Amino acid sequence: PSCFGYPLSIFFIVINEFCERFSYYGMRAVLVLYFKYFLQWDDNLSTAIYHTFVALCYLTPILGALIADSWLGKFKTIISLSIVYTIGQAVMAVSSINDLTDHNRDGSPDTVTVHIALSMVGLILIALGTGGIKPCVSAFGGDQFEDDQEKQRSRFFSIFYLSINAGSLLSTIITPILRAQECGIHSKQRCYPLAFGVPAALMAISLVVFIIGSGMYKKVQPQGNIMIQVSKCIGFAIKNRFRHRSKAFPKREHWLDWASEKYDKRLIAQTKMVLKVLFLYIPLPMFWALFDQQGSRWTLQATTMDGNFGSIQIQPDQMQTVNPILIVIMVPVVDAVVYPLIKKCKINFTPLRKITVGMFLAALAFVAAALVQVQIDKTLPVFPAAGQSQIKIINLGTNSVTVQFEPQLKNVTVTSMESTSYMTFETSQLTSLKISSGEKVTTFNGTLGGKRATLGIRTNVTNIDVKLSEDAMSKPEEGNNLIRFINNLPDTINVTMGDSSFGALTSLSASNYSLFPGGRKDQITVMTNSMSCSATSKALGFGSAYTIVINKCSGGILDTVYSEDIPPNTVHMAWQIPQYFILTCAEVVFSVTGLEFSYSQAPSNMKAVLQAGWLLTVAVGNIIVLIVAGASKLSEQWAEYVLFAALLLAVCIIFAVMAYFYTYVDPNEIEAQLDEEEKKQVKKEQDVDEKKAEADSQM
Known about the structure:
Layout: E1 2-3, E2 6-7, H1 9-38, H2 43-95, H3 112-143, H4 150-180, E3 182-183, E4 189-190, H5 192-212, H6 226-243, H7 265-281, H8 285-291, H9 297-302, E5 308-309, E6 312-313, H10 322-344, H11 351-379, E7 388-395, E8 401-406, E9 410-414, E10 423-426, E11 432-437, E12 440-444, E13 452-459, E14 464-470, E15 481-487, E16 493-497, E17 500-505, E18 514-516, E19 523-527, E20 532-536, E21 545-554, E22 557-566, H12 577-600, H13 607-631, H14 637-660, H15 667-698
Parallel strand pairs: 7-13, 15-21
Antiparallel strand pairs: 1-2, 3-4, 5-6, 7-10, 8-9, 8-11, 11-12, 13-14, 15-18, 16-17, 16-19, 19-20, 21-22
């Protein structure tokens, strides 16, 4: 059956691929934040496990191709590994259900190890599944066409690539939105089960769609794997060369010619071409090491930024969508506009030059990321080091007060309802505080041992009241805000903000901090014995901590003063767009060119080997991230970005030199030469046979 001149089975394959990529990229988009906020790993461990997983996903395709070509055939491989995949996604969704082990219902899992174990099992199954499917699906699609449908086949591959990008684009937008929802049976938190569950459901749909079409597929018998033949050929050549290493044996033109005793000339010639390309692949992993940090380091960078785009709130993991959006725009623009312009300028922009430019651009993108990081670091608060204390003074009275830090370290005057910034002291030096206002004087001897604290001071007719409260010692994660209240009314009050109740606050006392989602305003309500008043909080931004002083409550109107304990994230997420843009340009010239170039430099039956080599460069790139991030004990994130950029620049120069000495080949010409030689060989043998026959007849 056909439709628009295409085999009908193709539509099932394209839908299958769309669902599979949606499932994979959706899960991957929220993965690093799942590690950080749900499993509560630090940035470095989250990054390490993320890249280990990605590396696995690119190593398993080689396994998948071997299974399909040598044993099960593509159809059975796709089905059996899709089942593994679907189970993996489902396990992942279950692992993120907080209520599984949250017996005390406080909103965080009690036995995190259960969740870690489940999610690791899920990730391994997913890596096996995606790796098994990746090399098979596109080739299986290609198998559906007859030999005379070359045009439709090439168009199929374009549609196929589009469906990959559409799947990744949609899922990178949708999954973070699902993650940002609040859900849970007993306590509300980020909805990871939904974020992992939707990809799992799509994977199941993808499997069902693929099975429905099973009657229509053209199923090619497994042909044996070319990779195995190539490896055997290389192995034999090395062994044979080693056996004949003495001077007595004549040298051969190329070390692979030592395989000619056992393998035919054609396979040896093809292997030479493949090895020539694979040699050029050696520097490429460094590019992927930078490219794949979009999902780890760059996403973690976005969590320390301000995601307020007017009416829309952008989640940190949604910044990754900039890449697929730009890809969809850039690929046609580059092909239709940029390359023709370069050609007009009489520049020969060869594939290897494009790859070199791609590497250079990726290094540039990391320099941009480092510059953004430096700006972010400027806005981060400085917390007290060991042996230091920090103190902030807030004047809750009507008269100004002067505070003398004894022994004569410093003195400050604070006017009514003002607060100072934090002052840092060596804990051992600061003995006491002498507080004076007009005629009245009091001394405060409270301990500060290595903390941040706020000192609330209120003068009244007879004396000075002083109250010390401990402050937040770390910036709230994920763009949330910490809020607490100080009661500056004479009576005990009850404060609620949004859905959170802060309980009863006696006069001058401070509540504990409560966590609120970033970027929104909440209703503050104060109840005293006699009355209640309310007001809407100001916009608190992302990642801040505030102390809100309740000053007056009369006629239902609430008067409050805000004191900033930790400033909100001020660097806007839009500042990440330049680095994403540069990296996407790099991807367009690097990734698209790389595969096309490989295929043009080797015979068609060797495509599988090159595909495996290409995927291997991605896997090795992710392993490089682990090694560099682990070995470089850089405490500063910007320095790590610069280090990666420098490494890639060095590799880029090495690659440029290798490319300069590379000579382009035309596999078709070499094939034609081999055909000629074979014909001659056959003719020679025929001639010899004829002569022999003549000689026989003359006897």
